[in-house]
Amino acid sequence: MLDITKVAVVSVKQTLESAFPDEPLKPSTFPDKDGVGQYLIYDNAGVKDVVLDTHQSQANRIEPAFDNSGLIPDSTVRVGEETIPLTAVGHRLADAVVRFSNQSGTVEAALQAASKGNAAPVAKLAPTSLLLGLWDSRKTQTKLVRLFNSEIRAHNIIEVPSAGQFVSSVPRLEDQVTKDLSTEGLLDCPYSGLGGVIVKGEIVRNARLNVRGVRALRGANAEETQKLQQYILALGLFALTCPINGDLREGCNLVATMTAYSTFAEDGTRADITLKHEDVLAFAKQVAGEFGVGEALEFVYDQNAANTSASGKADAKEEKAKTKKSGKAKADAAA
Fold it and tell me: For the purposes of burial, counting CB atoms within 10 Å of the CB of 62, is it exposed (0-12), middle (13-18) or buried (19 or more)?
């Protein structure tokens, strides 16, 4: 579908509009140093822009689209009585519920193979981990760079304040303690905070597939490498063309009004291209069959294994602190 030896990046730009244009939009909030939620607003050539949806959030919205598609293993994670798809796990193969599961040895072996240059075992287990990235910072130290990125930003915005006043339905008695009243929702309470933003410019979603990163993937041999690259390319194009749910959160419901795909070639040229999701799906099913979609597994979380690991690390930290303290005492005595 694409010549990965010539293309560096495939991208899509979507212009979006609010489904409720007369109302302020509610961006994502992030805690500041005091834990108070704030919008991610920054200066852009003299006007204010805001992030409406981060690449992490976009990845989490898109990943479940692979479920029951036939393109990836429909693996599940069981924690106690609850079972969820593997695609719903935040850190993918590096997540704690996966690392401390009955499949931990298989996962560790696949991540170690990826660190040594063979990404095929990870592609068999959880190919979206290759596409959307992970960092196993607590065990193998394996880093898989994100090949697919997507963000939604709004240009030229005006911040809107919000204020309100809650009035209790019952009168306050003289001997009632303020803290108790507040706990039970019986205390008059003023409110002020974030009220969203008015967008004067464009709302744009930019998504990109790093084909150079796809080209860097390797299997056990040349034949597997070629099949692996085509497989991950197809999954990336699937993510790129997948219709997104524009209902991001309460107060932020968006509709796409324009979608344009383009490529950036290794020779520096850019070109508009046509990509249809149904064509991409057909291509993806073909190359997935050639590569061989991995077996669907059940990852059963082991709480005891997690507790043992946490206790062991705590004991090691305490022992290290004791050794350091003892060494300092000896040095002071020698002085």
Answer: buried
